[in-house]
Amino acid sequence: MAVTEARPKSAEPKCKSGPVDLVFIIDGSRSVRPHEFETMRKFMIDIIHELDIGLEATRVGVVQYSSQVQNVFSLKAFSKTEQMVKAINEIIPLAQGTMTGLAIRYAMNVAFSAEEGARPNVPHVAVIVTDGRPQDRVAEVAAAARESGIEIYAVGVARADMTSLRAMASPPFEDHVFLVESFDLIHQFGLQFQDKLCGMDLCLESDHGCEHICESSPGSYHCLCLPGYTLNEDGKTCTPIDLCAEGKHDCEQICIASPGSFTCDCNTGYTLNDDKRTCKMIDYCSFGNDSCEHQCVSVLNGFNCRCNEGYSLNDDLKTCTMIDYCSFGNDSCEHECVSVLQSFYCECREGYTLNEDETTCTMIDYCSFGNDSCEHECVSVLNGFNCRCNDGYSLNDDKKTCTMIDYCSFGNDSCEHECVSVLKGFYCSCNDGYTLNDDKKTCTMIDYCSFGNDSCEHQCVSVLKGFHCVCNDGYSLNDDKKTCTMIDYCSFGNDSCEHQCVSVLKGFHCVCNDGYSLNDDKKTCTMIDYCSFGNDSCEHECVSVLKGFNCRCNEGYSLNDDKKTCTMIDYCSFGNDSCEHECVSILKGFTCRCKDGYTLNDDKKTCTMIDYCSFGNHSCDHHCVSVLNGFFCRCNEGYTLQEDGKTCQSDNLCNTVEHGCEYQCVSTPGSYHCICPEGHVLQDDGKTCGTCRTSNIDLVLLIDGSKSVRPQNFELVKQFVNQVVDQLDVSPKGTRVGLVQYSSRVRTEFPLSMYQTKEEIKKAVMNVEYMEKGTMTGLALKHMVENSFSEADGARPAAKNIPRVGLVFTDGRSQDDIQEWAKKAKEAGITMYAVGVGKAVEDELREIASEPVEKHFFYTADFTAISQIAENLKLNVCAAESQGEIEVKDPCACESLVEFQQITIRANHSHGCELESNKCSWLLCPFACRSLGPETLKSLVPLFLLSLASVEVVKCQRFPLALVKAC
């Protein structure tokens, strides 16, 4: 039912004070009690919620201090209110001393630095909150902080000292100092601070007293002066700035002051340059009346004449004469000095040339001209040259060519064979085939064998001008006259060897082929018996062969891969045994064997299960049922088998079993079921009762994140979503939940397929960030129909008959049309709920809601009342929900199987169905299922899952008696 209350006016917009850098400096000393620290936390959060937070708007930082300083977060750390609130809520008090001065210094040097996010030309505001007297000095550091441009608000609580607060705060103190009795009253300062930060322009609304300019800042103002003036200590009047007296000018010579400015001038004899700052001396030469022969040089208040380099000024101080550098006597010339302009040079006398040092002289080398015609050497002399021969030569009569001296002609050579003249002497030479001895005169015949290149295989014999080869005894020289070959005595044909004859030096001997040994006569051979060595390792028999042996197995065995051991032949592996159960190999054949519980038939191949009941009924009260390896007793319908496993007793299952019914158990023949009181519904476990069955739905929530909702109310919306989630049975096969936020655009926070537990969903909801901006509800409905309920986003196929529920939460009129997509949502089978708060428009909510509208439409004027809507909404969703997907459960867990099992057993016997009683797996026989037909089975109870392939197997949740009797 809709709530009818007066709708409030729209909330005030956030403070639009312009860009501000705000730093909270909070006291975390041990004197601040836990509940007081929580109040301080709320105080900061309330102020932040009223500010326009952003990197281009208001930036906020938090510093906590006690005996040390902790930077909680800097001005550049966060750009969103939610991030700051989360960080503030995670602050842990330092619980030590109260070093307020240390905290102010940290704020000035670090918190308000550009590295931490402080901006130039933006007001810097610090709010100090403390509950006691500082343990360090604050006056000097606070003054330095104010001088650096920080506006300081000092908030004292309870035990705080007013003198210390005034020493810290900016003037005027009535606007910047606050003292309250307890932390509970600190919110009063918060309201005043917001008014000052977001309030009126005090320059326009107050008598500010500024002499020149008044400039507003959030909640305050300050005076400025015109360019060229400085603000006096009274903070209002101005004094002209004398930049010349303060040395704040760049004039080279003379500075002439004016208010806030200056001009430059020059001394006598100088003129001001174009930069109006520097000076240059007056150029008198430029006047053209200097009469200088070479150069005119301006000097202070006049000019001088100057000569070019290499000239000196004459006595008239105007004309010039070239300088005679040779006359200075420092020319260092070896022969003669010649003066030239600006210098001198040296000259040499005839027959000499000037060296590279340009001062000394060297006689001319006529030989270097290359026209001397000397065969050996040319020797220069003054004004000419002579020819000279090398050692060992004599100059011919032409005075140019040379002839080598013949020393052998002197007759004192003493050579045994020949004398050969050479340069500067002679040497002795021997005839062919001889070599010169160490005395360099006598000769000896050459030993060619000693050179080592004779290539003789055995022996080398030297002769004149050569050598020849000879062989050792038992060898003959080959045709190459160098190598030798041993004489082959076997080739003579008188060896008498049975197998092979091997020649050796000066004789021969006999050898046998591989696998044979030589007999005592040293000529005949016998094959070796390897088996006789006793190392054959054969398991059965050893058979000697040439060069070895082979192993052989006895009859009925085959040789293994190791070629030594034997294995009995497995006749069963040939696949022609025809045994029904097992084949057992024996020596030279096989036999058939049956599994436990079976006996071998007369054909010695097939098997029959032993019928233990045929031996008697084994004292069973009702029926004996044979099974593999035994039997069991079974009771008639309505009876229970006792502990002895044989006797049967009629029973009321509600009295004899732990049925677990929360309200009441109702017995039926061979079964039971649970019921609930009026107004309650039996839950899926078949035992407990509740006002609402655990829902199995696909639920998508569309929540309005427009600017009009406001951050604090958006937190209530998230709590409302989690309150709805708390009522649901969230699981992959139960209820799935998706969340979409919209404003001027649409954003899927998480699809239906993302989370599978309540805890995951609730955590994700609380992490959703507020979008702000417009209200495009129609666009959000379109997104929900086209995307949120798609199988790609996790919605289950329509064939599974899972209800699809959409819930729209909004606080105002949509900025686009909702009619088209609200209609399409309901046509798509989506059950639509509409929840409105505050300025939400009733006709739009009714347009969105499904029929009957009164059960699908909710409204309240206040966000704080939406929790009651969540409760009312739950009751309506419960009334519309369905069973959802049927979970296939283990038939053994069903309490109503007794009679069903009995009848199924009989049906299995009748139609040959296999039954595995020891695994508690009960199959409804195909015959019984086909005789009823799938439609009949479906109509009996909605909690059956029929196999779509064969419609043969029914798995139980709660089997009705009608189906059991039908089988």
Q: Any overview of this molecule?
A:
- The two termini are 49 Å apart.
- α1 links the parallel β1 (20-27) and β2 (58-65).
- The strands form 27 sheets. The protein has a six-stranded mixed sheet with strand order 3-2-1-4-5-6, with helices on both faces.
- It has 967 residues and is an alpha+beta fold.
- The longest helix has 16 residues, at 34-49.
- Among the domains are: 20-199, Rossmann fold (3-Layer(aba) Sandwich), CATH 3.40.50.410; 287-322, Laminin (Ribbon); 405-444, Laminin (Ribbon); 492-527, Laminin (Ribbon); 574-609, Laminin, CATH 2.10.25.10; 615-650, Laminin (Ribbon), CATH 2.10.25.10; 694-880, von Willebrand factor, type A domain (Rossmann fold, 3-Layer(aba) Sandwich); 888-966, no CATH class.
- It holds the Pfam family VWA.
- Residues 21-197, 698-873 form the VWFA domain.
